[in-house]
Amino acid sequence: MTQHFPPRGFIQQGLAPCLEKGEKERRLGFCTILDRRGEATRMLLADQGQEWTEDVVTGEIWQKGDLKKTCLFGQLPRFQDGDFVLYQSNAILRHLARNHGMISFADYNLLDILQLHLVLAPNCLASFPLLAAYVQRLNARPLLKAYLESEGRKQRPINGNGKQ
Ligand SMILES: N[C@@H](CCC(=O)N[C@@H](CS)C(=O)NCC(=O)O)C(=O)O
């Protein structure tokens, strides 16, 4: 299966218009101010061998306020699954998990949180061998590993404060 890392259409300056009925594309719209909300979704999609397109909203564009008004709850990420539009990262994950016949989406959230902790404190799992093994096992899954090693992932900051 062909995968696009970074995904097709990477670095656009705003959200794409809503897709028409019958369109099959998957698009993840996120803001560079605090993008980590979308990361579990990306890991689920990559691990399930799926493709998607990123709609990047810069802080500058977001702060103009026009896009915010169009977003349910006034926040990103936004996920478009064809003509079906979803907000709230856990709702997006639940939708995708259901679509891919998975019982749970929580693994990707837990993995994301543990990966973040490891960035901030690389030894934080030293006293938790089961959790450390869990992270290693998931990180080694071939499709997920390819995503984790992709430029798109490496270049994406944890948040927009420029400290990572
Ligand atoms: N509960 C939401 C939180 C989303 C969230 O915190 N979004 C932030 C960062 S992407 C945002 O849109 N901030 C801009 C704002 O609130 O104006 C989720 O999990 O999707």
Automatic annotation (TrEMBL):
Q: Does the keyword Transferase apply?
A: yes
Q: Under what name is this protein listed? A: glutathione transferase
Question: Superkingdom of this entry's organism?
Answer: Eukaryota
Q: Keywords of this protein's UniProt record, alphabetized?
A: Transferase
Record bears the keyword Transferase: yes
Q: Which Gene3D superfamilies match?
A: 1.20.1050.130, Glutaredoxin
* Source organism per UniProt: Phrynosoma platyrhinos (Desert horned lizard)
Q: Which InterPro entries match?
A: Glutathione-S-Trfase_C-like, Glutathione-S-Trfase_C_sf, Glutathione_S-Trfase_N, GST_C, GST_superfamily, Thioredoxin-like_sf
User: Per its UniProt entry, what is the enzyme's top EC class, as one word?
Assistant: transferase
Domain called GST C-terminal: residue spans: 17-158
Q: Which Pfam families match?
A: GST_C_3 (PF14497), GST_N (PF02798)
Ranges for domain GST N-terminal come to 25-104
Q: What is its EC number?
A: 2.5.1.18
